[in-house]
Specification:
- 2 copies of one chain form a homodimer.
- The first copy, chain A, is an alpha+beta fold and 282 residues long.
- Chain A folds into 2 domains: 112 residues, Aminotransferase class 4, branched-chain amino acid transferase, N-terminal domain (D-amino Acid Aminotransferase, Chain A, domain 1), CATH 3.30.470; 152 residues, D-amino Acid Aminotransferase, subunit A, domain 2 (D-amino Acid Aminotransferase, Chain A, domain 2), CATH 3.20.10.
- The first copy, chain A, has 8 helices and 17 strands.
- In chain A, a hairpin with a 2-residue loop joins strand 9 and strand 10.
- At the A-B interface, strand 3, helix 1 and helix 5 of A face strand 3, helix 1 and helix 5 of B.
- Strand 3 of chain A pairs antiparallel with strand 3 of chain B, so a sheet runs across the interface.
Chain lengths: 282, 282
């Protein structure tokens, strides 16, 4: 197998020799942010949205990106050319840097990686099961590397025969560890939580699409709203629109709902036919 | 300057060439635990307590330490001999390992590092100022690398002229980001929070010492308890017993209190004169 390349602080090197010194603040204090987008046919999907969010996360966490937005974009295109992995996920990671005292943020390290990405069509077609989990991410709008609770919560979900969790605290749904949550009420209105959550890029585009199809509400979503909903689905870069057929003991039906299916179709058109920067070729 | 050595997965190498591959779960998901103890005159202070807690943290986070306790202890002594840094801090870090899917825990990486440690006698003599900060660490008994909130909170403390924060949520004090908190009430009773906090090693020994001097209560500590207290102090491996002269607008006096001072003296005797494994010499 061809070994893929990564870019660390602007320098290209093979993935298997890519490393960080052990005093990086990600390793010693869990301090880092990242962003993640996909490529389809060597097109970077929604890249500018991801770059917006990447710089937002960095700013929120007092990390100064040591490259301009143009430079980061250029590095991404370079990596895409060098690797030539048409369907891939690309991650931009920004750490707290090599801290002298092991606590104070310094010049960040920037790591850009690319790896092959295959769609989970089974889940997108058949839907998944969630359980609620009592947690709310600190720094909700930041795409932090902190997935400790997500990893632990997944264990609980699997024990209960579910595929993942959705965080719910103080009677409010917020998000899944790696996806945004939507419900559809009995009138066909698409509803998704508003405050202190990750501003998902897929979420953003699904909201836009949904507005052409039905009414959309971006607001607090209570456990009662969840229980009374007719459909539910989650969105993310890798999961696209994945139907949710059950949360806890609430069943939304054995197959994806009508509104969810229409949104899936519309999102397919947007992503796979009408969107993308000019094709990058090696 | 002589470059210190570290031990990664049982192998000794110079600190400046010590690294982790970029797919380690600490870097991609903030998933790692650690422990930290000090050496004085090449004696490992309270090492067995730290090893107890290290294995506790590992177990709580589903990390299987790839070395026996005897092997880890042996590696620590080897490192102490090789480096010969009489007054030092030694950290044992255990990460989620090189995850194949970037999410699932695998065989952990173990990193043992040693660096010179100097006491902050100014703080121990004059005391420090804290502010309360609304947070409670998830996995309270685990010494996780997750210090994102601690690092952000310190910024707020410094803006307000304080040295650090103490976490307080739902009217309950819990701990500082890198230390345990104690108060002393008007009757001289030493009180420290009980539940879902890091079981500090210094905290443990201070509790033992305090029982010989006065009454001790290990229980919930409310903001009212804090406000009514006569003295306060924090404990940690690097800070020993550091008096707290103010929390928010509550002033405990311009110098360390009587009980705090007696505990400092007794702890000094315990740590510096009567404790320690046999001296390890190069």
């Amino acid at each position: 197998m061809k070994i893929s390349q990564v870019i660390i602080n602007g320098k290209i090197l093979p993935t298997n020799s890519a490393s960080l010194g052990i005093d990086d603040l990600s390793i010693v204090r869990g301090y880092a942010i990242f962003d993640y987008f996909k490529t389809i046919d060597n097109r970077a999907i929604f890249l500018e949205d991801n770059l917006d969010r990447f710089y937002h996360s960095a700013k929120q966490m007092d990390l100064i990106v040591p490259f301009s937005r143009d430079q980061i974009r250029e590095q991404i295109y370079t990596l895409m050319k060098v690797n030539d992995i048409p369907s891939s996920g690309i991650k931009i990671l920004l750490t707290g840097g090599y801290s002298i005292d092991g606590y104070t943020i310094t010049t960040p390290n920037v790591i850009i990686t690319q790896s092959e990405l295959n769609r989970n069509l089974t889940n997108e077609q058949n839907g998944i099961r969630l359980i609620t989990f009592p947690y709310h991410r600190p720094f909700g709008t930041v795409k932090s590397i902190d997935y400790v609770m997500g990893i632990q919560a997944l264990k609980k979900a699997r024990k209960q025969g579910a595929d993942d969790v959705v965080y719910a605290l103080n009677n409010q749904l917020s998000e899944c560890p790696r996806a945004n949550i939507f419900i559809v009420d009995q009138f066909g209105t698409v509803i998704t939580p508003e405050k202190d959550i990750l501003a998902g890029i897929t979420r953003k585009h699904v909201i836009e699409i949904a507005k052409n199809i039905t009414s959309v509400e971006i607001r607090d979503v209570s456990l009662e709203d969840m229980a009374n909903a007719s459909e539910a689905f989650i969105t993310s870069t890798t999961k696209n629109i994945t139907p949710v057929i059950a949360i806890d003991d609430i069943k939304y039906g054995s197959s994806p709902g009508q509104v969810t299916t229409r949104l899936q179709e519309a999102f397919e058109v947007l992503t796979f036919k009408n969107y993308g920067v000019p094709i990058v070729k090696a």
